[in-house]
TrEMBL record:
Transmembrane segment boundaries: 44-62
Organism name: Rubellimicrobium mesophilum DSM 19309
Comp. bias intervals (Basic and acidic residues): 22-34
Stretches of the chain forming a coiled coil according to its record: 151-230
Keyword set includes Transmembrane: yes
GO CC terms, sorted: efflux pump complex
CusB-like beta-barrel domain residues: 272-337
Keywords: Coiled coil, Membrane, Transmembrane, Transmembrane helix
GO function term, MF aspect, one: efflux transmembrane transporter activity
Family: Belongs to the membrane fusion protein (MFP) (TC 8.A.1) family.
Stretches for region Disordered: 1-36
Name listed for the protein in its UniProt record: Uncharacterized protein
Annotated ranges, domain CusB-like barrel-sandwich hybrid: 122-257
């Protein structure tokens, strides 16, 4: 349905709107204008403005009143008491609890192990091998018979030498009796002088012959003894090169005996470390294949000349192996202790503060305290030996340059 529009077509001169579109307030204003009356003015903006001015004046007056009643800053500070000191937090990893320790300066060394005692046994008498009593891996005792060479021919040679010597000894005895009787005859003038000289020459020749035959006996006895090969010391058979029935000549390799109770490391170390090395220095070794165990050794000797090409020195280290754990050919690595300080107190070099002399900051009774220290030798790992502190001291070792003595602290994560 279409909306009815009033037929009035007049336009209000104040608003420029048709009369039918005027609001009630606008109609009242139009009526006052036709009657010649002035338009009504709105008073509420002026009322709001006056109220705001009054509120502002009251606020300023109240502030001045509070300022007059408030105490002076000095009085307020006295009333509030002393300001609480600043509390610094220090983590556990920023402190070091000082404990006695062993400081060491070491030189690295690597190399294989070998038995310190080894004997390569060879035949000293020619002949046929009758028996070999041991095999590789067998333990042997000093003096034990290991190899026996046929002694039949050697025994015959010895017996012949003894027989020849005995015959010569009898001949010499007869010649000496004849010489003595001839000298008696010469003294009585019964025999000529030249007969004595001949008998003396014969006796001297027999003496020389007997001496040579006695040497032959000794040589035959030695050959007979050498036909029996014995262990030179307590040890283990490392290798065997001969079997029974073989014919050997003097010098033929037979067996190798080693003593595993004492091992030797043939180590290599840089020639630059040679000046710090000396016989008798302690060595700590780790051996490949023997996990979780460290072996102690001692430097026995040092090669006087470096190896060409590698520029390394050979260092011989003795290692005790009473339980037989170590075997020849194992590879070892270790550290030669060239300097040592036991039960020493040491700190990282960065913990030493130098303002006003060498000192450190320690935590005592919840605050930092200054402790003067005397510095000693410097050690690997950036450590320096110190004096002037006691074991158990909690020393600030972190890079915290703003800390000062007397400053209260709180320990965190302890």
């Amino acid at each position: 349905m279409a909306k009815d529009i009033p037929e009035t077509t007049g336009v209000d001169p104040l608003t420029g709107k048709p009369e039918w579109a005027l609001s009630r307030r606008e109609r009242r204003a139009a009526d006052r204008a036709r009657q010649g009356l002035p338009p009504r003015r709105r008073r509420w903006p002026w009322v709001v403005l006056v109220l705001l001015v009054l509120v502002g004046m009251a606020a300023f007056a109240f502030r001045d009143r509070l300022a007059a009643l408030a105490p002076a800053p000095e009085q307020a500070a006295v009333a509030a008491g002393p300001e609480a000191p600043r509390l610094t937090q220090i983590n556990a990893d920023e402190l070091t609890v000082l404990e006695p320790t062993t400081l060491r300066r070491v030189v690295k060394v690597i190399g294989p192990l070998r038995p310190s005692r080894r004997s390569d046994l060879s035949a000293e008498a020619a002949g046929q091998v009758e028996a070999v009593t041991v095999r590789p891996g067998d333990s042997v005792a000093a003096g034990q018979v290991l190899v026996q060479v046929d002694v039949e021919r050697l025994t015959l040679d010895l017996n012949l030498a003894r027989s020849n010597a005995e015959a010569t000894r009898s001949q010499l005895s007869l010649a000496e009796r004849q010489l003595e009787r001839q000298q008696q005859l010469v003294e009585r003038g019964v025999a000529a002088e030249n007969t004595v000289a001949e008998l003396q020459t014969n006796a001297e020749a027999l003496r020389a012959n007997l001496s040579a035959q006695e040497d032959q006996i000794a040589a035959a006895e030695l050959s007979l003894n050498r036909a029996t090969v014995r262990a030179p010391f307590d040890g283990v058979v490392a290798s065997r090169s001969i079997d029974p029935g073989a014919v050997v000549a003097a010098g033929t390799p037979l067996l190798t005996i080693v003593d595993l109770r004492q091992m030797e490391m043939v180590g290599s170390t840089p020639v630059s470390a040679g000046a710090a090395l000396a016989a008798g220095q302690e060595v700590e070794l780790e051996v490949n294949g023997v996990d979780g165990r460290t072996f102690s050794g001692t430097v026995q000797r040092i090669a006087p000349v470096a190896e060409e090409g590698t520029r390394t020195l050979t260092v011989y280290v003795g290692v005790d192996n009473a339980d037989g754990t170590l075997l020849g050919g194992m590879f070892a690595s270790g550290e030669i202790v060239t300097a040592e300080a036991r039960d020493a107190l040491a700190l990282p070099r960065g913990a030493i503060r130098e303002d006003g002399g060498d000192h450190v900051l320690v935590v005592e009774d919840g605050a930092l305290a200054r402790r003067d220290v005397t510095l000693g030798k410097e050690w690997p790992g950036g450590l320096v030996q110190v004096e002037g502190l006691e074991a158990g001291a909690r020393v600030v070792t972190a890079d915290l340059p703003d800390l000062e003595a007397g400053e209260p602290v709180e320990l965190v994560d302890f």
